[in-house]
């Protein structure tokens, strides 16, 4: 019982960290920058695919040569084959790779995930500079779906609808407990991301971002370049999203495009709106609540907590979660649009001056 | 006839049906967008609920009399859709609009409404043991004529095409010729002024939602008449519907044509891609998605605008 | 009482937004056939006063009488129905409707087709420029034409009282003064009493029968146009605004 509960808690902490990073990134773009990146899940996905494919590819390459195996794969990457699963299991069981090697591979793949996410963000800034509001939101959402559909149906990069699975846990190779290690690393990563995002949003750059959000013309008159600031926000935000994607894959050892549906973006939107738009602590709070919903409203979690549900309720539970997410979005918009922790008014002489000089509009 | 030509013809016929459905569905989305400026993601669910309501009618009505069943299906569907659409406005969109919410907030709200409706239906279907996770209207279409045996025109085609054309004409005339339609456009264009001139903007809004909901669910009924329906059917077509609406520049005739073109493209291009390149039909939605993104990037005001009146677009 | 009541009378009218008081204790009146100017510095609450009279802003106290009957609580559309009309300072047309449709919507409450046609003729005779643009989207008209359309739309119900909020704002001075002259004609052609808020204070007071000066939400001075224009203490106001 205690073990089961602590297991769920660890799982919760990991999901909290991943959702908090996504929320901080969405909040930076949308809350601070006014860019409705409703394709958030696309960049999380890019990070996940990149991390999964790269880590699997390198690990498998080293693993097969050390085990003296050869994998013949047609029309799909070698890491999608059954033999690859065997090689992966051998690596986890130990001896094939040193902890140093697997750490290096993991770090490399994480960096690649962030980089690919960021490049995706730069691509997304093309519409983001040209479109506004609802049309931009729809465009980014659609772009996310295009990519997901293609990845889901094509063996490259992550084995189509089967997904890429069995990626060896670097922590297991090091002889550490996987979930707890992932939780520790995720929370540490989250702390670093939080400090980074808080610094960025409170810096002159962050103020420029807000200025572009509030009054693009005024910001332009003052010498900011809205297109460049949007591009930077999307690149950084998407890089962070890619990092979150990589964390999710490190945790589960699997990547499947099916898990990157728009619903995930909606979860992040709900978290940020609930916590408080343009407030970084709010994003954390929102992520804590949404992750809690996702982890604890689960048949297995509830059973571990001693709550047994009728089978039919158990079947309906995964759906109810999204009903609750939807309700959260609606209720927050209706009754507390500023979120639990509202945006702190930024009182800088520059902003005040801009507002006075150029009027509101 | 060669196999390719035959396949293309079959795909074309199927595209006509699917495309008319897209057009029909996009008309309601357009109506809401034109009057309230809401890009309504919950619209998909009005379609789904309409289909489910139509099927529910068959539990009430004696299934032997298929004509009565069809009528009951339409009535059930349209009233359910109208009521749900109106309720979503009264409970969510109207209060937000009154407060002066931005379009983007309304979009987010519609996502919320959509999630609630879709997943409640899924949840309810799961709770009841899963046998309603897929339903089908008990009366199905019949072939009217057929080329060879696979490429055929059915009563579903007739229903979808006729109703789409009819509703598009009605809506177009409504907007350009009638007092109510002009009041709708006036309400959209400047609600405060509309109220000053004596238009009952609240009533106009309610009529809009009732009409759009009825249209959506009528389309849902039509869908269930030729295809099994599940709680995600509407959601899955939503991208096609948005593509059609945006491609048509939110003008009724433009949206009709765009829907048709997209449906035909989906099937014919999909068939050819499969035949020559071996690309599976699961990639078909890419056509809608690419159309959507391209139109928005290149001509956000729409590709096929068929109205002398222009919907002014916010910059 | 012997004489007819004024077309419009406010008694201690206090109005604003929500609980926010912007204009306070305002007593003004507009007599039958009168053109009355309301002038004052920017932000003094002129627009808010008109909105309070029409019920678009919140009435927080006092009363509004139209031809002797209390209309304080009537919603805007009812006021339009009983013979008042109002042209807001901004957003006073339907940009996505054609000129003709704008006028038709102006007459939304008029069920008699021939009356609508007559009113439209009257509008076109007052503002001949509009006639050629009937099927043009209102949003694509020039600024001056849009103002004409806004006033024309309000005339479609053949009101007894017209509230005009800065109908010349944002227009080139020459066009603005032309439009003002046209508006005075409206009184004769449409038989309507007018309460006009105007930034061209000097010109407005010259044209109007009487004027009120609103400062910080209160009436600071009133009288006929000439005597207001002659007052030393108000000179700065007129010069400041006319520019
Ligand atoms: N919709 C509104 N909500 C809240 N305050 C407003 C609104 N419109 C105007 N105000 C405030 O009311 C005051 C008077 O404005 P207004 O009546 O427009 O003045 P004027 O027309 O004389 O220039 C100003 O301080 C303005 O900021
Ligand atoms: Mg004003």
Largest sheet strand order of chain C: 6-7-8-3-9-10
Largest sheet of chain A: none
Our estimate of the beta-strand percent of chain A is under 5%
Mean pLDDT of chain C: 89
Whole-angstrom Rg of chain C: 17 Å
Strands of chain A, count: 0
Order of helices and strands of chain A: HHHHHHHHHHHHHHH
Estimate the global geometry of chain A from the Cα principal axes: globular
Number of DSSP helical runs of chain A: 15
User: Helix amount of chain C, in percent?
Assistant: 25-40%
Small molecules bound: adenosine-5'-diphosphate, magnesium ion
Number of helices of chain C: 10
Name the helicity range of chain A. Answer: over 70%
Q: What overall form of chain C do the CA principal axes indicate?
A: globular
Query: What's the N-to-C terminus distance of chain C?
Result: 44 Å
Mean pLDDT of chain A: 92
Topology:
The complex is a heterotrimer of chains A (361), B (315) and C (243).
Chain A: H1 2-32, H2 40-67, H3 82-93, H4 99-130, H5 133-153, H6 170-173, H7 178-202, H8 204-214, H9 216-221, H10 226-252, H11 262-275, H12 280-296, H13 299-304, H14 311-335, H15 349-358
Helix pairs in contact in A: 1-7, 1-10, 1-11, 1-12, 2-3, 2-4, 2-5, 2-10, 4-10, 7-8, 7-10, 8-10, 11-12, 11-14
Chain B: H1 3-36, H2 43-60, H3 66-98, H4 103-127, E1 143-147, E2 151-154, H5 155-177, H6 179-189, H7 191-196, H8 201-226, H9 233-247, H10 252-277, H11 285-298
Antiparallel strand pairs in B: 1-2
Chain C: E1 8-17, E2 20-30, E3 35-39, H1 46-54, E4 58-66, E5 69-70, H2 76-81, E6 84-87, H3 99-106, H4 113-126, H5 128-131, H6 143-155, E7 161-165, H7 173-190, E8 193-197, H8 201-207, E9 210-215, E10 218-224, H9 225-230, H10 232-242
The complex binds adenosine-5'-diphosphate and magnesium ion.
Residues 17, 22, 40, 42-48 of chain C line the site of adenosine-5'-diphosphate.
């Amino acid at each position: 019982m205690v073990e089961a509960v602590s297991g769920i808690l660890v799982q919760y902490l990991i999901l909290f960290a991943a959702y908090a990073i996504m929320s901080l990134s969405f909040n930076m773009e949308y809350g601070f920058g006014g860019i409705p990146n409703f394709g958030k899940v696309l960049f999380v996905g890019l990070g996940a695919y990149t991390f999964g494919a790269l880590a699997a590819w390198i690990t498998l390459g080293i693993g097969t040569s050390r085990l003296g195996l050869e994998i013949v794969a047609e029309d799909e990457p070698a890491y999608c084959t059954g033999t690859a699963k065997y090689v992966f299991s051998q690596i986890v069981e130990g001896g094939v790779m040193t902890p140093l090697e697997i750490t290096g591979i993991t770090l490399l793949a994480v960096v690649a995930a962030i980089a690919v996410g960021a490049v995706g963000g730069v691509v997304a800034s093309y519409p983001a500079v040209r479109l506004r509001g609802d049309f931009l939101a729809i465009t980014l959402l659609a772009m996310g779906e295009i990519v997901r559909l293609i990845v889901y149906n094509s063996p490259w990069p992550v084995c189509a609808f089967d997904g890429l699975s069995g990626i060896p846990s670097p922590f297991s190779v090091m002889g550490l407990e996987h979930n707890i290690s992932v939780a520790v690393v995720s929370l540490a990563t989250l702390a670093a991301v939080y400090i980074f995002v808080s610094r960025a949003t409170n810096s002159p750059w962050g103020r420029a971002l807000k200025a572009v959000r509030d009054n693009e013309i005024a910001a332009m008159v003052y010498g900011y370049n809205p297109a460049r600031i949007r591009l930077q926000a999307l690149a950084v935000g998407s890089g962070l999203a890619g990092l979150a994607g990589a964390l999710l894959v490190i945790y589960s050892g699997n990547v499947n495009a099916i898990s990157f549906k728009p619903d995930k973006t909606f979860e992040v939107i709900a978290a940020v709106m609930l916590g408080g738009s343009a407030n970084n602590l709010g994003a954390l709070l929102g992520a804590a609540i949404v992750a809690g919903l996702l982890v604890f409203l689960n048949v297995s979690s509830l059973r571990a907590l001693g709550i047994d549900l009728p089978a039919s309720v158990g079947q309906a539970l995964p759906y109810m979660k999204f009903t609750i997410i939807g309700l959260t979005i609606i209720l927050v918009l209706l009754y507390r649009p500023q979120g639990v922790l509202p945006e702190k008014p930024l009182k800088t002489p520059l902003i005040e001056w801009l507002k006075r000089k150029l009027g509101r509009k | 006839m060669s196999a390719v030509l035959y396949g293309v013809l079959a795909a074309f016929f199927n595209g006509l049906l699917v495309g008319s459905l897209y057009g029909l569905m996009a008309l309601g989305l357009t109506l809401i967008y034109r009057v309230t400026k809401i890009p309504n993601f919950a619209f998909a669910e009005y379609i789904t609920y309409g289909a489910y309501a139509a099927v529910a009618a068959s539990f009430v009505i004696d299934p032997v009399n298929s004509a009565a069943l069809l009528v009951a299906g339409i009535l059930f569907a349209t009233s359910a859709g109208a009521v749900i659409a109106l309720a979503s406005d009264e409970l969510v969109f109207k209060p937000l609009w009154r407060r002066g919410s931005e379009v983007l907030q309304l979009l987010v709200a519609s996502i919320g409404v959509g999630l609630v409706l879709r997943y409640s239906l899924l949840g309810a279907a799961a709770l009841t043991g899963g046998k309603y996770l897929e339903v089908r209207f008990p009366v199905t279409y019949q072939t009217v004529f057929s080329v060879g045996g696979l490429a055929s025109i059915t009563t579903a085609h007739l229903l979808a095409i006729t109703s789409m054309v009819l509703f598009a004409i009605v809506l177009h005339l409504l907007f350009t010729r009638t007092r109510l339609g002009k009041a709708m456009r006036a309400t959209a264009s400047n609600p405060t002024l509309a109220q000053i001139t004596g238009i009952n903007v609240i009533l106009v809004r309610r009529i809009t939602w009732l009409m759009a909901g009825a249209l959506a669910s009528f389309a849902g009924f039509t869908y269930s008449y030729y295809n099994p329906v599940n709680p995600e059917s509407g959601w899955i077509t939503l991208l096609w519907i948005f593509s059609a609406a945006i491609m048509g520049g939110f003008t009724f005739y433009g949206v009709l044509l765009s829907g048709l073109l997209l449906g035909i493209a989906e099937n014919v291009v999909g068939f050819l891609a499969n035949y020559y390149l071996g690309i599976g039909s699961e990639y078909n939605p890419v056509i809608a998605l690419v159309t959507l993104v391209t139109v928005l990037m290149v001509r956000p005001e729409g590709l096929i605008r068929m109205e002398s009146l222009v919907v002014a677009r916010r910059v | 009482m012997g004489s007819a009541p004024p077309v419009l009378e406010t008694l201690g009218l206090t109005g604003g937004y929500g609980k926010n008081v912007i204009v306070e204790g305002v007593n003004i009146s507009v007599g039958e056939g009168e053109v009355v100017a309301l002038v004052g510095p920017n932000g003094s609450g002129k627009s808010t006063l008109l909105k309070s009279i029409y019920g678009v802003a919140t009435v927080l106290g006092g009363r509004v009488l139209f031809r002797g009957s209390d209309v304080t609580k009537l919603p805007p559309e009812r006021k339009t129905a009983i013979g008042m009309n109002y042209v807001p300072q901004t957003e006073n047309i339907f940009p996505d409707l054609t000129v003709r449709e704008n006028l038709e919507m102006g007459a939304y409450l008029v069920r008699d087709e021939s009356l609508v046609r007559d009113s439209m003729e009257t509008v076109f005779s007052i503002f001949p420029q509009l006639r050629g643009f009937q099927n043009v989207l209102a949003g694509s008209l020039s600024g001056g034409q849009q103002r004409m359309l806004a006033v024309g739309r309000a005339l479609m119900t053949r009101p007894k009282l017209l509230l005009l909020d800065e109908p010349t704002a944002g227009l080139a001075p020459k066009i603005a003064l032309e439009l003002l002259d046209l508006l005075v004609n409206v009184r004769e052609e449409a038989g309507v009493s007018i309460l006009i808020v105007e930034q061209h204070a000097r010109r407005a007071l010259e044209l109007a029968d009487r004027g009120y000066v609103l400062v910080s939400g209160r009436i600071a001075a009133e009288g006929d146009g000439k005597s207001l224009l002659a007052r030393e203490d108000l000179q700065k106001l007129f010069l400041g605004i006319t520019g």
